[in-house]
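Sorry, any thoughts here?
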Amino acid sequence: MMIVVISSMKGGVGKTETALNLAIAAKKTGRSVILLDLDIPYGGVAQALGQTKEISVTDWIKTNRSISTKALKSLVAVNEENGLHYIPAIASTSDLDRLDGQVVQRIINSLNTLYDIIIIDSGVDLSEPTKAALQISDKIIIVTTANHVSAQNNYRYKEDLVSLGIDRDKLLLFINMIPEQKTAGQIVKNIVTTFGETGSSTQTVAEVHYDEKVAQIREAHGFAYNNCPSFRSGIDQVLQKLGLANPIFSQEAKPSKTNAASPGVVGWLKGLIPWSR
């Protein structure tokens, strides 16, 4: 059993895209996988798949602890095109008050009896549902871009998680949508060093370059994992780190070595984290 939370403290970084593609990639390994949308209230999983919320987290709020396995399975949506099992976010904002940390724990515990892997697309917040998912998880993938605001928000986020009692060894950094420009390489190296060597050390698990095809594939409700080499490589690196990769692992998907930081990293770090001393 494994619970993996895909999280971020900046919208628009590809968090849901990462969650969707990690789920479909993990499914390809032969394991049973479910994707749980806890990006409350609106979520993005069902929308990304072009589906409605005929089944949602709302249905799980109403369940009790003694519900049968057959009944649990009836509360899971299945994408007919690829067989992905998923649960969309709540159907209505009127359900917000009923979704607390205890309900989230109950949902996850129930899913643990049915699936090998639970992948959770979490909220861009520290609400009770989000914290419950983070605390019960085995790994937390923090998704950021090379943008300063995104990196800064997520640096503070990982420090806050540790201060809340989250084991820092759970945390992994996924750098997404790296632009094709001359300065991008150095910026990424600086982010890797900043997250890895300051505060609560966090390992970078993947560096994914921007590919306009990712957005095009999402518009068509497809999966970038199947058609975008850079994105696929990043997801494969995550699978490998989680111990979920296929026995035969492609050479191109191996994590790239990160060079030592340049002398300018200290100055860049001060710009990124003005509150550091």
Remarks:
- Confidence is low (pLDDT under 50) at residues 247-266.
- The chain has one domain: 2-272.
- The radius of gyration is 18 Å.
